[in-house]
Specification:
The chain is an alpha/beta fold. The chain is 41% helix and 17% strand. It has a seven-stranded parallel beta sheet, with helices on both faces. A six-stranded parallel beta sheet has the order 10-9-8-11-12-13, with helices on both faces. Helix 9 crosses helix 12. The two termini are 37 Å apart.
Length: 377
């Protein structure tokens, strides 16, 4: 089975990239030959056994590379590849892996018109031309308004075995540490609910220590720091991210819109509870949802580090049944099998355009140099 995966940004601060990185590893283990095409690449995220090529943003030459790659299926995870996939004859199955995009009312005013056009275009010009649409939650399927989409939950067990479990009883009187894993940019401040995060610190004061990990701009960083929130920034290392989960007592999210909210489930695998509002997908991902900000705040007011450990065990049991990468990739392979008959599986060919062969060789050389550098004594 030969699979091509297309995405715009493959960097650790983006949840979609973390999803793809985990899928790549499991697909390779399942015996698939997988190539990744991305406009922006973070080489340390590319699993062994995966060929990765940086794609120019104008996508020139991409169709040629995909045709000569003789893929059985091409999977697009983000724009601009959805439209490219719908409009391009590749002689193979085409899957749109839809992660969703924020509703227009949560976007900046200057973005709302094109966001609405984007949604309309998906329904009229893109989804009907694909072999199958996959999405990541029941909420996401209803949100994109495509009932035929296949729901495949994300896995979240990629930090399992890396998280250190400290002894909450040894320091039970210390402030509760809350972790927020989210981007904090001006254009996303509203829908990520960062006003409520600042409000929580104002209300609970020294009872809690709040830390935020993710990408953001300098103005937003200064605003968070002024409220007493510790800003960690982008975390590239799996080990560092696992350490942050292990050092917190709970994860908190005030996001107004998500189609999965991966950090909620990641926290569960670290045996930490994830607290959030009863909005969008959240009731599918965590049992700790609250109808109002005040209800969430009051629950934290009466919580201790020890009681949060008990909540963490409940959270772990919840996510362990639902959000494992082995389950995710098995379901994805089932979808691929439904649109790619076994008899039509193609053999690889080594005939590619000279330009794309050069790009692939260059990326392979960069990956090898990078891996040798990080493994040096």
């Amino acid at each position: 089975m030969r699979i091509a995966i297309l995405t715009s940004v493959f960097r650790p601060e983006f949840g979609v990239a973390r999803v793809i990185a985990s899928q790549l590893s499991y697909l390779v283990k399942a015996g698939a030959a997988v190539d990744l095409y991305a406009c922006e690449l973070s080489r340390e995220m590319i699993p062994d056994g995966v060929s990765a090529v940086r794609v120019p943003t104008h996508l020139k030459g991409l169709r040629t590379a995909l045709l000569h790659g003789r893929y059985d299926v091409v999977i697009a995870h983000t724009d601009p590849f959805f439209k490219f996939l719908a409009d391009t004859d590749l002689g193979c199955a085409k899957i749109g892996y839809e992660h969703g995009f924020p509703p227009v009312e949560l976007c900046l005013p200057e973005e709302r018109e094109w966001r609405m056009k984007e949604l309309t275009g998906r329904l009229e010009d893109i989804y009907p031309k694909l072999s199958q649409v996959v999405t990541i939650s029941e909420y996401a399927r209803s949100y994109i308004r495509w009932p035929a989409a296949k729901v495949i939950y994300n896995g979240a067990d990629h930090y399992s075995g890396l998280t250190r479990q400290d002894d909450a009883a040894a320091d039970a009187d210390s402030p509760v540490t809350l972790l927020a894993v989210t981007r904090f940019r001006k254009e996303e401040w509203l829908y990520k609910g960062l006003d409520d995060l600042c409000r929580l610190k104002d209300d609970l004061k020294d009872r809690v220590r709040i830390r935020i990990a993710g990408a953001g701009d300098e103005l937003s960083r200064e605003m968070l720091l002024s409220k007493g929130i510790e800003v960690i920034g982008v975390v590239s290392s799996r080990e560092e991210m696992a350490r942050l989960y292990g050092e917190c007592d709970a994860l908190v999210s005030f996001s107004q819109w998500e189609t999965f909210n991966l950090p909620l489930a990641e926290a569960g695998f670290a045996r930490r509870p994830a607290f959030t509002l009863n909005l969008c997908v959240h009731p599918e991902v965590t049992p700790f949802v609250f109808d109002t900000y005040e209800a969430l705040r009051d629950y934290l007011l009466k919580s201790t580090r020890l009681s949060l450990r008990s909540d963490g065990e409940k959270m772990h049991a919840y996510v362990s049944e639902r959000f494992r990468w082995e389950q995710n990739v098995r379901a994805l392979l089932d979808v691929i099998g439904s649109v790619v008959p076994e008899s039509s599986a193609k053999k690889p060919t080594f005939v590619k355009s000279l330009v794309w062969r050069f790009w692939e060789a260059r990326e392979s050389m960069r990956q090898n140099v990078y891996k040798k550098w990080v493994k040096r004594p």
